[in-house]
Design goal:
This protein has about 650 residues and is α+β, with helices and mostly antiparallel strands. The chain has 4 domains: about 120 residues, PAS domain (Beta-Lactamase), CATH 3.30.450.20; about 110 residues, PAS domain (Beta-Lactamase, 2-Layer Sandwich); about 150 residues, 2-Layer Sandwich (Heat Shock Protein 90); about 110 residues, 3-Layer(aba) Sandwich (Rossmann fold), CATH 3.40.50. The protein has 16 helices and 24 strands. The strands form 5 sheets. The protein has a 6-stranded antiparallel sheet, sandwiched between helices. α7 crosses α13. The longest helix is centred in the middle third of the chain and has 72 residues. It is elongated, with a radius of gyration of 42 Å. It holds the Pfam family HATPase_c.
């Protein structure tokens, strides 16, 4: 195929009105000077490297969408682009162009360049229009006007179209009087020395007889007449066609707007996906850190517990060890919250005394928000219990508090109120009648307008900047409330703050008392020394677990891997119990337990894990023991395993 420069010379010889080369990979346009003149590009402007959208710049709005579709089809595989369309020149003249072109392909048969030319076919289109008018059965009025005259010869149909009384000759002033304000004259005034360039025009009139607004098209010829000129032409009603063009133009604009909207929505969806992936990555990282931290706490707390049994009865030493153990317990509580955030915990609904939950999270919540946002907790001590997962509920409330803080960036009080209310049938959407505990987080921040409020719980919707919010927090809270057979509501107004409320149904079971004793451990099994295999790839944890077990009077075998453990199991027929870590290389604790039980049916198994969740969908029955665990918790797990 010819290069672009050779193509330009060839097209010039053919009388083409302009040519272009669209570099598809770069999405840029090279044009010649004739194309630039038609499109109103500055003569001094570079004619290479133009944005590809410049190709559509001068195309008539009614034709633009059609040509865009044709170009897209050609680039997608059509062999040839060949279309007629209108362009509007910088001077406002409408010209008809025949565009022809095709794609150059690269070595992989993919479009590389789209080269083509424009040919002016305006005269042909006008001749076709005159022929069409001449063949029209009716509805066409004729006129003849001579330069310098104040009147024009017209037909009866001409008069009817303008709503004028029938006459063979009419004053030009009378003819032009039917024009709508701002419209160009139908015929030039006798005093005007301006000769029209073309008779092709459309103008709006207000019919003289009935006042109807109509659109009239004028077509004709300009002929020499002595030292002046003569106008011979026709007029006809184009109101319907203009309405159709207007509708098509509106449709094109709507389509372009819709395409733009879909592009924006796709970008938003991609950004939301990136945020969700980022959240998942953070969750995995948090879960991994919590797991490793639990292992460290296990080594520390078990060592301290064993040390406390071997030290002399010295109050000062006992106090120091107790302080260290309390610090380890606080660290363990922190890892539980990290695991809840990472969704690496078993979510088990239980009876929750809301006052105890709120009191327990007060210190954490205040540290999370900072001193500039003082918290005001208010509740009734006789609130009934609710059935929920405490870690989930606590994380939901922390999330709401963080949102409230962000709504008051300069600081200010934030309230958490809990009360009991009765909901009647139909009073609240999607909420069954009954008694509900309401927990509200209230701020006096910027608030939300009605549109934002309506979308606030939609997944991925956020008013925060890019990277500052996933848009998942409120939707997750709403989902939590619905899972618990309650609901989540928001009340807000610009400048009046926001109230976010969780509605949780009153539990059917008895309310736990504020000072309720902890659950009793499993009853001890008959006292005798057990043969126990302890497995953990962390040598510190393995050593301390074995020390715990030996201190309880059991006989212990130790293994640092699943493979070593299987060898011991096969060599020790009188083994009573297997205690294994889960996250080990090569063979996980679950895989080890499944293999051990298949070889030794009925062997009790305790699965110790630094993750909060049961990391398996296996049907294998195990007793789960979360790290870090105390000697008492280990003993209770042994009792449960042996009892089951």
């Amino acid at each position: 195929m010819l290069g672009f420069e050779q193509t330009q010379l060839t097209l010039a010889a053919m009388g083409a009105s302009g040519s272009w080369a669209w570099n598809i990979g770069e999405n840029s346009l090279d044009v010649d000077e004739r194309f630039a003149a038609l499109y109103g590009l500055d003569a001094g402007e570079a004619l290479t490297g133009l944005p590809a959208e410049a190709f559509f710049k001068a195309i008539h709005p009614a034709d633009r969408a059609r040509i865009k579709i044709a170009v897209a089809g050609m680039m997608a595989g059509a062999e040839l682009f060949s279309k007629e369309f209108r362009i509007v020149t910088p001077g406002g003249t409408t010209l008809w162009m025949h565009g022809r072109g095709q794609c150059e392909l690269d070595d992989y048969d993919q479009p590389r360049r789209f080269i083509g030319l424009l040919v002016d076919v305006t005269e042909r289109k006008r001749a076709e229009e005159r022929l069409r008018i001449a063949q029209t059965a009716g509805g066409v009025g004729t006129f003849e006007f001579v330069d310098g005259h104040a009147t024009a010869a017209v037909s009866a149909e001409f008069c009817r179209l303008l709503g004028l009384h029938p006459a063979s000759v009419l004053p030009v002033q009378t003819i032009n009087a039917v024009l709508a304000p701002g419209a160009q004259p139908i015929l030039p005034d006798a005093r005007s020395s301006h000769v029209p360039e073309t008779l092709d025009a459309e103008f709006e009139i207000i019919r003289n007889d009935d006042g109807q607004r109509r659109w009239i098209a004028r077509r004709g010829e300009i002929l020499p007449e002595g030292s002046g000129y003569r106008l011979i032409g026709v007029i006809y009603d184009v109101t319907k066609s203009r309405a159709m063009e207007s509708a098509l133009r509106d449709l094109n604009e709507t389509l372009e707007e819709r395409v733009h909207q879909e592009v924006v929505e796709r970008q938003q969806t991609e950004e939301a996906l990136r945020q969700a992936q980022k959240l998942e990555a953070i969750g995995q990282l948090t879960g991994g850190v919590a797991h490793d931290f639990n292992n460290l706490l296990m080594a520390i707390s078990s060592s301290l517990a064993l040390l406390s049994k071997r030290l002399p009865d010295d109050p000062s030493l006992t106090r120091l060890i107790d302080n260290a153990l309390q610090g380890a317990e606080r660290g363990a509580a922190l890892t539980q919250r990290m695991l809840a955030f990472a969704r690496r915990q078993d979510l088990s609904p239980e009876q929750i005394a809301v006052p105890e939950l709120l009191a327990g999270m007060r210190e954490l919540a205040q540290r999370t928000l900072g001193p500039s946002w003082p918290l005001d907790f208010r509740w009734s001590e006789d609130l009934p219990a609710v059935l929920a997962d405490p870690n989930q509920l606590e994380m939901a409330l922390i999330n709401l508090l963080v949102n409230a803080r962000d709504a008051v960036p300069r600081g200010g009080p934030i309230s958490i109120h809990a009360d009991l209310t009765t909901v009647e049938a139909g009073e609240l959407t999607d909420l069954a009648p009954g008694r509900y505990v309401r927990i509200s987080v209230i701020d006096r921040g910027s608030g939300m307008d009605a549109e934002t409020l309506a979308r606030a719980t939609e997944p991925f919707f956020t008013t925060k900047g890019v990277g500052k919010g996933t848009g998942l927090g409120l939707s997750m809270i709403h989902g939590l409330a619905r899972q618990l057979e309650g609901t989540f509501t928001l009340q807000s107004a610009i400048g009046q703050g926001t109230s976010a409320t969780l509605w949780l149904p009153e539990s059917r079971h008895a309310t736990p008392s504020p000072g309720a004793a902890p659950a009793q451990p499993s009853p001890p099994v008959a006292r005798h020394n057990l043969n126990i295999l302890a497995v953990d790839d962390d040598s510190l944890i393995l050593m301390n677990t074995a020390a715990f077990l030996e201190d309880l009077g059991h006989c212990v075998w130790e293994a640092a891997s699943g493979a070593d453990a299987l060898q011991i199991i096969r060599a020790t027929p009188d083994l009573d119990l297997l205690i294994t870590d889960h996250a080990m290389p090569n063979m996980t604790g679950v895989q080890l337990a499944e293999q051990a039980v298949s070889e030794r049916p009925g062997l009790p198994v305790i699965l110790a894990t630094g993750y909060g969740e049961v990391p398996t969908d296996s049907m294998l029955r195990v007793v789960k023991l979360g790290k870090p665990f105390s000697q008492a918790e280990l003993e209770d797990a042994i009792n449960r395993a042996m009892s089951e």
